[in-house]
Design brief:
Layout (H helix, E strand, L loop, with lengths): L10 E4 L5 E7 L6 H20 L2 H5 L8 E7 L5 H15 L4 E6 L5
Parallel strand pairs: 2-3, 3-4
Antiparallel strand pairs: 1-2
Helix pairs in contact: 1-3
Length: 109
């Protein structure tokens, strides 16, 4: 499960605020910016399709009325050009009634 496989929803949970959180696990470096952003865009689009097609409500009817957050949990911090593009992704996702968040969680040893 990762950003590289758009056909899989990586994680689904409910946060402390009662929102349904669909998490994207992103381990890629930002050095290949175009490829990484394309993979992330494809994954976000797949998540939106999962929501908008009704699959999410069918799989989790108990959560159908919850607000939805798509959360990208990344191993690496974004560079400035990637942050600008992610901001555009966030704007697009907000038009669907969902939120899009980015969170960096470096590996701990």
């Amino acid at each position: 499960m990762s950003v590289e496989n758009p056909k899989v929803i990586d994680f689904i949970s409910v946060d402390g605020q009662g929102r349904l959180v669909l998490t994207i696990s992103d381990h890629l470096e930002w050095d290949q910016e175009g490829e990484h952003l394309f993979a992330l865009q494809e994954k976000i689009n797949a998540y939106l399709s999962f929501i908008e097609s009704g699959q999410m409500k069918k799989q989790r009817p108990q959560d159908a009325s919850r607000p939805i957050v798509i959360r990208v949990v990344a191993l690496h911090e974004m560079d400035a050009p990637s942050e600008q593009m992610f901001s555009r992704f966030r704007d697009f996702v907000s038009k669907t009634g969902c939120e899009l968040h980015f969170e960096r969680q470096p590996m701990t040893h």
